[in-house]
Amino acid sequence: MNKTVVLVNEWGKFEASHPDGNIDDFCRYYLAQKQGRKVNGPLVGGVVPHFIDGLLMKIIGRISKLNMSYANMALKGTGLNQIEEFGILVTILQEEKPKKTEVIYANLFELSSGSDMLNRMKKRGLIREYDDKEDKRSKRVALTKKGEEVVELCRERITKNAKMMTHGLSDDDKELCVQLLKNIEIEFSALWPRHRGKSFEEVYGSVMGGSDQK
């Protein structure tokens, strides 16, 4: 087959599954299909899902757990007990005195567990709480001086952890991973607040719509 035709066909496949992708994304995608870094060892621990969706989610889940374990190791001696606390501090810093509920939901916590974590961090002098002038029912939070210092210390360590976890990937591979997975994060981050309290059957039906729901 003519090489131009092959390239056009490959582009058509990529565009169909990644409508927002550009030419740079396609090149990374195409090269990743042709050359992969092989590492010896089992793909995942435990039971290997027999369907591709489950295998992908298990790989993502195991990477997430491993990242949390190493990140928590990196945080020892910083004043933080777990990676979720770092996420909370960074959210407060970036959002500039947000409401407590905004911080909790931005970090994908339930209200009760998120409130407990904020209270513990307040007792340790990392954040301060004050009344919302516009809504007396709400509370806002800000970092203390100690909290700001902890963020700077932890940011360096978390950056090192991220570089360590992805050291086997080229920058192009990392860009491709982001391109392929970002829409999942965007979609479900927006849906999650509306799905809380619903049954899985309701959630599944609303997400899948008229597609194959088997």
From TrEMBL:
UniProt-recorded name of the protein: MarR family winged helix-turn-helix transcriptional regulator
UniProt xrefs under PROSITE patterns: HTH_MARR_2
UniProt KW keywords: DNA-binding, Transcription, Transcription regulation
Domain HTH marR-type residue range list: 53-186
